[in-house]
Design brief:
heterotrimer, A mainly alpha (328), B mainly alpha (292), C alpha/beta (241), B: 292 residues, mainly alpha, ABC transporter involved in vitamin B12 uptake, BtuC, two-stranded antiparallel sheet, 2 strands, 2% strand, C: 241 residues, alpha/beta, Rossmann fold, 2 domains, 6-stranded mixed beta sheet, 9 helices, 25% strand
């Protein structure tokens, strides 16, 4: 254990250029990838959804990967974003891109309102956020509020539909989410959280206001989900409340992030792209087979590789490194 | 009249909700594991009742008994399989949460493959059908029959926990597993068994869920888990008697909401769990603060 | 192994924590009714030895043999049922159980289903049987620990720091109890700091320092041994210098 801590500090004190170049690559590769993908694979809506899931997985990464708080109710921000931006377009005729930003702010605002949930420890927080998001859904979809939210009948944004624009926004959101992860990871806050994981005693003296930083991470994460929901609503153009307040959105985002490996910059991107492709291949016609696969993946990950694919990779890399040391 | 109807109906349903939730609390007590697959075990209990009735014409009352030994064994084996691996991890509570979440997905997927998407229900005449009358109001047969089945089940469970020698060992292991081992108790076996008891209680509730929820479908699990979680948090984690009282209070709240503000009644479990967690995290009957 | 007179034989027991030897080749033989003191400065490995013999830690090497049967590395509950029992430095009774139930937990797995009342009577707690744990004083909790060990029909009891925090009157009472246990054939291994208490109960000691045995023999001789003195007085003389 102490060995890994040493290695990490060595990496952290590494050259400054390296700390800027690797996040740039981690951001540019997926962005260029998505930009080129549309010329190879013409189903724009599917690519938009994939980009949305990359952003969501990175949003989960910011929360769970760096603070250990697992937001089961992450879909709540997604739904709030979809509704806030949708209503902003319908009621105030805002341009969709501006509405997407407003949707992100809506997500962050709800995040701020739900922040007392941080008083709860790990697992309780997870279920607390789930209950909160279900509560928001019950309110938004309530027939009594039809005059405001159109109740159970959802929103129709067909007038604002614009192919290309929504996809471009989704790619921009991917970039934003990865930059946010890189920022949190490289910040003093990220380093402190990493140190807390390695040695909870020494890190508490590091002088970082952990609750406040955690609150910021939560707001960023909620804003990403809000924007993701906004783009989803815009790209889908007609949606019912149960489509945007769908707990399987959090489920998939969490699975993608865990599969790739949380706490890293690349992991959730890789996890989301790989698993969402599998989802497209078999999940749409046979969702239960896909559910079975990712359910088994989670069970096996927890039992055998709790740090995800990248954790697996690091584990082997470290073994090789260690062997070299002992051979010397 | 509406008020009396809500209260009596709430108590009848509340007894069912107590049975629905107590298994989740038992599993929590066994190893501090939050069983996110709880609702899926309930769902499987429902399918067991459906199959037993449709294929062999076995009354759901008998099915309630049949599912017990099977689910105890399944729960025990599952526990023995996962507990050693979770024990090695640095954050077993969080990992177990994710693990059971994965398990819940697996159960849901397999159930869809085996039973299909459509909701299945049992004819009401598979149980005694006469409605229950009190204060001039009548209540559906499934409400009082499920309560009548739940009461002896819960009583047997409490006798097991507080009066039997195995129950004493369970309480010793929950209190301190190292001390229990040093006192000659096979702590792994005892907590595995108690874990199985939690599964069995869930499956029993599942048999009656087919009636109370109007059917059984593969996707019903997560919503039931959240409701059960709301009830056990309200009644205090780790305290089964608290769960029984909380289940009945929940039933009354829910019925009052159904009667007076029906479109908002689904909000009851969520509001209950959030309000409890934020204002009294140790629950109604808790001494120690466990969640914050 | 015919008629082996040795009740418990600890053979070159070594326990390692993350590369650090907390216990290094410690050996000890004890016969029925015998009482041995286990002494040493904090961190010398006394509690590690107790935990290893009782199966809470797995030894890296060495053997534990009870009445000719090797039990090294067995699970703790099996070792407890075989007759090696212990008390804890800080008593941790089952808080949600009554005094009687606490003892009953141990009695369930005793070979002949010992009398719970009998065990409580031997430690003068009979009249508190139906009280909740919260009503017991610290001294009574320590006696309850002894009753719990008794209910398992012990052949050997490891008594871990029993004397700490007891008044002279309570000390005397506990020492008398331990002597009564001994006369009924139970072997005692007494982990203790308080020499005055130790003198009342044991005649020989095993002295540990940094996980190694530095002395075995009569308590009197130990107190005059140069090495033992150095280890025990070392800390204080360092401070003085």
């Amino acid at each position: 254990m102490p060995k890994t801590a040493e290695i990490k500090t060595l990496q952290n004190t590494g050259s400054k250029t390296k700390t800027l170049i690797s996040p740039a690559i981690a951001t540019l590769v997926p962005v260029i990838g998505f930009a080129l993908a549309i010329h190879v694979y013409s189903n724009e809506l599917l690519l938009t959804y994939m980009a949305i899931y990359v952003a969501l997985a990175q949003g989960v990464n910011i929360m769970y990967g760096f603070t250990g708080y697992l937001p089961f109710g992450y879909f709540g921000f997604f739904g709030v974003g979809a509704y806030v931006s949708g209503l902003a377009m319908l009621n105030y005729n805002l341009p969709p891109v501006v509405a997407v930003i407003v949707g992100g702010l809506g997500g962050a605002l709800v995040g701020a309102i739900l922040s007392p949930l941080f008083r709860l420890r790990g697992a309780y927080f997870a279920i607390g956020t789930l209950a909160a998001s279900e509560a928001i859904y019950t309110i938004v979809a309530n027939p009594s509020l039809q005059s405001i939210t159109n109740g159970p009948y959802g929103l129709n944004l067909a007038n604002y539909y614009s192919s290309g624009m929504a996809y471009g926004s989704a790619i921009a959101l991917v970039a934003i989410s990865i930059i946010a992860v890189s920022y949190v990871r490289g910040s003093r806050f990220g380093l402190t959280l990493k140190a807390i994981r390695d040695d909870p005693y020494s890190a508490s003296m590091a002088g970082v206001n952990v609750p406040r930083q955690r609150f910021y991470a939560w707001l960023i994460s909620a804003a990403i989900a809000g924007m993701a929901g906004s783009i989803f609503g815009w790209a889908t153009s007609v949606f019912y409340p149960q489509a945007v307040f769908d707990s399987s959105l959090s489920v998939l985002a969490i699975v993608f992030a865990l599969f790739g490996g949380v706490g890293s910059v690349w992991g959730p991107t890789i996890g989301a792209v790989l698993l969402y492709s599998v989802y497209n291949a078999i999940g749409i016609s046979n969702p239960e087979y896909f559910q079975l696969i990712y359910g088994l993946v989670i069970v096996l990950l927890v039992l055998f590789a709790p740090r995800g694919l990248l954790g697996f990779w690091n584990f082997f890399a470290q073994k090789i490194r260690r062997k070299r040391v002992t051979n010397d | 009249m509406l008020f009396e109807y809500a209260i009596v109906g709430g108590i009848l349903l509340g007894i069912f909700y107590a049975l629905l939730s107590v298994g989740l609390n038992v599993v929590f007590g066994a190893q501090k594991i939050i069983n996110l697959a709880h609702g899926d075990v309930i769902m499987l209990g429902g399918y067991a009742a459906w199959e037993l009735y449709q294929t062999y014409k076995i009354s759901p009352i008998i099915s309630t008994i049949i599912v017990v030994p099977i689910t105890v064994v399944i729960g025990y084996l599952l526990n023995r399989l996962i507990a050693p691996r979770l024990g090695k991890s640095s954050d077993p509570e969080m990992l177990s949460l994710i693990l059971f979440f994965g398990l819940s997905q697996v159960i849901e997927a397999l159930s869809t493959l085996v039973f299909g998407n459509a909701e299945r229900s049992l004819p009401i005449n598979s149980i005694p059908t006469s409605p229950f009358k009190l204060f001039g109001e009548s209540y559906p047969a499934d409400w009082w029959v499920s309560a009548l089945v739940a009461i002896p089940l819960l009583a047997i469970f409490l006798l097991f926990l507080y009066r039997s020698s195995v129950g004493l060992q369970v309480r010793a292991v929950i209190s301190d597993s190292v001390e229990a081992a040093v006192a000659g108790i096979n702590a792994r076996r005892i907590s595995g068994l108690y874990f199985g008891v939690g599964f069995a209680l869930a499956a029993c509730a599942g048999v009656w869920g087919v009636f109370i929820f109007g059917g059984v479908s593969p996707t019903e699990g997560p919503a039931i888990t959240v409701t059960a979680f709301a009830i056990i948090v309200f009644g205090s984690l780790g305290n089964p008697i608290g769960t029984l009282v909380a289940g009945i209070i929940f039933g009354i709240f829910y019925q009052l909401a159904q009667v007076y503000v029906p479109s908002w009644s689904n909000l009851v479990p969520y509001a209950l769990v959030i309000a409890t967690m934020l204002t009294r995290p140790q629950g109604l009957f808790g001494r120690r603060q466990r969640v914050a | 192994m015919t008629d082996s007179p040795v009740l418990l034989r600890i053979e070159e027991l070594t326990t390692v924590f993350g590369g650090l030897k907390a216990l290094s080749q410690v050996s000890l033989d004890i016969n029925p009714g015998e009482a041995v003191g286990l002494v040493g400065p904090n961190g010398s490995g006394k509690t590690t030895l107790v935990n290893t013999v009782c199966g809470l830690y797995r030894p890296a090497s060495g053997r534990v043999i009870l009445e000719g049967t090797e039990i090294t590395g067995h699970r703790p509950h099996l070792i407890a049922r075989a007759g090696i029992n212990r008390t804890f430095q800080i008593p941790k009774p089952f808080k949600d159980l009554s005094v009687y139930e606490n003892v009953r937990v141990s009695s369930i797995h005793s070979r002949n289903h010992t009398s719970i009342e009998g065990a409580l009577a031997r430690v003068n707690l009979a009249e508190l049987a139906n009280h909740p744990i919260s009503e017991l004083t610290a001294a009574q909790q320590k006696r309850l620990d002894l009753a719990r060990a008794l209910a398992l029909e012990p052949k050997v009891i490891f008594v871990d720091e029993l004397a700490a925090g007891l008044t002279p009157g309570e000390l005397h009472e506990v020492a008398e109890m331990l002597k009564e246990f001994q006369s009924s054939g139970i072997a005692l291994i007494v982990v203790e700091h308080l020499m005055g208490f130790l003198e009342q109960v044991v005649s020989s000691v095993l002295v540990l320092s940094a996980g190694r045995t530095i002395f075995t023999g009569p308590l009197r001789t130990a107190l005059e041994d140069v090495e033992v003195k150095r280890v025990f007085l070392g800390g204080e003389s360092d401070a003085g210098n």
